[in-house]
Structures are given as structure tokens and as C-alpha cells.
Design brief:
Keywords: Signal
Helix content: 10-25%
Structural class: alpha+beta
Number of strands: 12
Radius of gyration: 43 Å
Distance between the termini: 71 Å
Number of domains: 2
Largest sheet: 8 strands, antiparallel
Shape: rod-shaped
Order of helices and strands: HHEEEEHHEEEEEEEEH
Oligomer: single chain
């Protein structure tokens, strides 16, 4: 059985590194060897053959005898030389013996099969990887409008007529986000893009009726939010643009027309932009996050406002 030692060593070498597929590879090897063995054709007696012995040296001669475990050659000088199977190089054993021929061919096919298994395994692993990144640039667009209304009023006590001038200035700002989304996986993927625009309520001067959905002045709140699905090719990139709802602040000033008493303090009310937060997710898991302030990037903040 010693002559089969090299087979076992080679097979074990082949199987090392992929223990989970060892049984499958061993079965594949044995099946291939059984299929290949019948196709072996030995050199004919009396034919000129060349071979290599175990140390790699070449020999040639006429094949005189081919046994189950040895061969006999006649050299050019007429000398008869016997070679045991174990004294031959692996490639020469496969040349003269069916068992060795089947082993070499089956091992070659098994190596190829192992390579395919490994390739498929890597492909499967890659399919389970979901990796994305985002980059965000922000730009705020601002505009303003002024409206003046005049109304003549008669004072009840004196009957004096005065012109009340109400000046209303409206300041509007909108936040534009340009977002680049990168799919870093080697397969197409669909991500979720979740975004938040934060606002801060301003109210001073004249008090206005507070709506139920408004928060106290100075308190941050989510002015606008949304969720988008984005599908990106393997190693691909997509760019999208998000625009916030307008943040509007109104400043109202009333001139009573009196030269002797100061006008009332102008009233200011509305919401101003307080920043933004963008999350890139896959199956609910946050892959990347970008924000206008590092405060908004904390897990505590995200849990509070999502």
C-alpha cells in the first residue's frame, strides 16, 4: 500500500483550506477516477517510449514488458532494464498504469471543481454584503418680500385721525441637498435614503395664536422628513437632490402715526432652518450618516427624531 501514499498526500493537500467541502471533493474525486480509469490505454509492447524516473532524469527504450507493478525496457545498447512502479516519476506512472492515469486526471478535474466551488462561495458571500456610502453638499436659498398697508383710524377719545402703517417683511429660506450615493458592493443593491430637515421656532414681540402642532420658541423640531428607495448598479453611483419645505419668518412693524409715543416693538414669528440629517440604510441598518452638525449624528439624536 505504500505506493498509494503519494495519492493520499495529494488529496489531503487538495482538501485542506475548505473543510466544509472536503467530503464533497473526496466524493467528486473518487467518481471522476472511476469514470476515467476505463479510458486508459497503455503503450503497446515493442513501441519506443520515453519516461522520467523519480529523480527527474529521462530514460527511453523499447517497451518489452508491462506488468501490474513494473515495466521492462530495452535500451539502445540492448540492455534490459526493469523499473518498479515506485521508481517512476508521477507523470510516467500515469503513462503506464491505469490507476495512476485515473488519479492524475481525476485530481486535475477535482482541482478545477474546487476552484469553481470557491468562486461560487465567494460570489455567495459577496451577494450577502451590502455596503453603501453617501456624500452630501448643502446650499440654502434665501429670499425676502416686503408688504406695506396703511389704514386711517379715528381715535375714540379725541376724534383725531391717524394713519396706521403696517410693514410686513417675509423672509424665506429653502435648503437644497445634493446627495451622491455609492454602492460599494459587487452586485446591484437597493438602499433606503432617510432624511430630516430641522427647524427652530421663533416668536417675539406680539404674541400670535399658537397652533397645536407648533412647539415652544427656541425648540428644535422636524420641519420636513422623508424616505426614498434608491437602486444602484454594482460599484455604481447615483445622485439625487432633496429640497426642504420653505422656512418662513415674518417680521411685522406697526407705525401708529404718533409723534409723542414710541411705536410698539416689531413682532417676529415663524421657523428658521436648524440643519439637516441624512441616513443611508439597508434593511433598517444604518450604513452611513451625514448631517449639518455633529450633534445630529449621535445614536441618541437619531433615535429621538426618527
Amino acid at each position: 500500500m505504500k505506493r498509494y501514499t503519494f495519492k493520499l498526500a495529494l488529496i489531503l493537500t487538495l482538501l485542506v483550506g475548505n473543510a466544509m467541502a472536503a467530503d464533497d471533493l473526496k466524493t467528486y474525486y473518487e467518481n471522476q477516477k472511476a469514470e476515467i480509469r476505463p479510458s486508459f490505454t497503455a503503450p503497446q509492447l515493442g513501441s519506443q517510449v520515453s519516461l522520467r524516473i523519480a529523480n527527474g532524469q529521462s530514460r527511453s527504450g523499447i517497451l518489452m514488458k508491462l506488468g501490474s507493478d513494473s515495466i521492462t525496457l530495452m535500451s539502445e545498447t540492448g540492455t534490459t532494464i526493469h523499473y518498479k512502479r515506485s521508481a517512476l516519476h508521477e507523470t510516467s506512472r500515469a503513462q503506464f498504469f491505469a490507476e495512476d492515469y485515473a488519479h492524475v486526471k481525476a485530481l486535475e478535474k477535482t482541482r478545477q471543481y474546487k476552484g469553481e466551488l470557491h468562486k461560487n462561495h465567494l460570489a455567495q458571500q459577496a451577494a450577502e454584503i451590502h455596503d453603501g456610502r453617501i456624500s452630501v453638499s448643502a446650499k440654502t436659498e434665501k429670499s425676502s418680500d416686503k408688504k406695506v398697508e396703511k389704514e386711517e383710524r379715528e381715535l375714540k377719545q379725541s376724534g383725531e385721525k391717524r394713519v396706521y402703517t403696517t410693514t410686513t417683511k417675509t423672509y424665506t429660506e429653502q435648503v437644497n441637498l445634493n446627495i451622491d450615493i455609492y454602492n460599494q458592493a459587487v452586485h446591484p443593491d437597493t438602499f433606503s435614503l432617510e432624511y430630516f430637515f430641522f427647524g427652530q421656532r421663533i416668536a417675539k414681540g406680539e404674541q400670535t395664536d399658537k397652533k397645536d402642532d407648533e412647539v415652544s420658541p427656541g425648540t428644535l423640531s422636524v420641519k420636513d422628513k422623508g424616505l426614498r428607495k434608491v437602486t444602484i448598479d454594482s460599484r455604481g453611483k447615483k445622485s439625487i437632490k432633496l429640497v426642504s419645505k420653505p422656512f418662513i419668518i415674518t417680521k411685522t412693524e406697526v407705525d401708529t402715526g404718533s409723534r409723542y409715543s414710541s411705536n410698539r416693538e416689531p413682532s417676529v414669528a415663524g421657523n428658521e432652518s436648524a440643519g439637516w440629517l441624512v441616513l443611508l440604510l439597508y434593511d433598517g441598518r444604518i450604513l452611513d450618516r451625514k448631517a449639518s452638525s455633529s450633534t445630529y449624528l449621535s445614536d441618541e439624536w437619531i433615535e429621538k427624531y426618527r
